[in-house]
From TrEMBL:
Keywords: Iron, Metal-binding. It comes from Methanolapillus ohkumae. Transmembrane segments: none annotated. This is Hydrogenase maturation factor HypD. One of its GO terms (biological process) is protein maturation. The keyword Ribosomal protein does not apply. The gene is hypD.
Amino acid sequence: MDTISKTDPILENPVEIQKKLIETISKEPKAARIMHICGTHERTISKFGIRSLLPPEIEVLSGPGCPVCVTPDNDIDTAIILAKKGLTVVTFGDMLRVPGTEESLFDARAEGADVRMVYSIDDAVKIANENPEKKIVFLAIGFETTIPTTAAAILRGLPSNFYIFTSLKLTPPAIDLLIQDINVDAFIAPGHVAVITGTAPFSSFEKMGYPVVVAGFESYDILLAVAMLQKQLKEGAAKIENAYPRAVKAEGNKIALKMMDDVFDVSDSDWRGLGTIPNSGFVLKEKYKDHNAAILFYDLYKDELTRLEEVRKKKKKNCICATILTGKATPEKCPMFKKACTPSTPVGPCMVSDEGMCHSWYKYNRD
Ligand code: SF4
């Protein structure tokens, strides 16, 4: 089934189906460490207490799937520098609160910099059209889920005072790197990424001998994925399966993929927690160079960025967000969790975003 349909049995009686799924999973469970790589999955898992519904033999870990969390310090610092140099920086709300090396975009705004929150690139373009005397820099973050909307706006045409600083991430190369060094038995793949990319990008899991199931974002979607992974693990299988056929087609969304291809070139990219990953990001194609903030404003930010990199090297790293993003620790292992670091006083990016693991654990995992 390719589209959302009321005839999908899982939609007709989700409570009963969840009970049955839990019964199936709990029947002679095979011990397994299952990793998801999606902030929205973490939110569903934490919100509905799915870990507590599973038998203790099954552990569900969180990987690098929150776009705010994987955005590196350098990109946040660059946006802050540009704002303090007199440009108008616009980006999504969560990004304003992520601490850079010395401060956040919110702090810069409190000091008088022109930093604005938007819900989409279209809002940012509107600001540029309404303020032709200003230079508007859009800090673009996200995965394949949101990149097509950025590409579509660019293809519609941008005002001459509109610039984009890209911190956009391409998921498959990060997956390839992640599975080289990880103690995990199976993966849940993000359904919204697969809506765009199709299932092929997750073939690395299969090739490396890991079962993988593409899942949606309701509690029953996650339970169905766990049940399907358990079946594969018990059978000794390692294949890609799609537990979200009401939204995901094997070939993905060809129109969205073409728009991305028309606008962006693939480039190396820095990921918080994973370092620089070859071919894991996007930069604007040469034909859009008049809107490329990273190139046009390089002289404005390069010296200060170098200074901040030195500051960062000397700083004691108390936040273990990078370790959490690779599934090697959970939030309660961080001494600042629920103490110095809370959603209203975030020390690291994993506590800022609604999709960050620390944020989800703080909000939903009450002791
Ligand atoms: S609790 Fe805060 S400081 Fe600790 S890892 Fe999470 S975001 Fe970083």
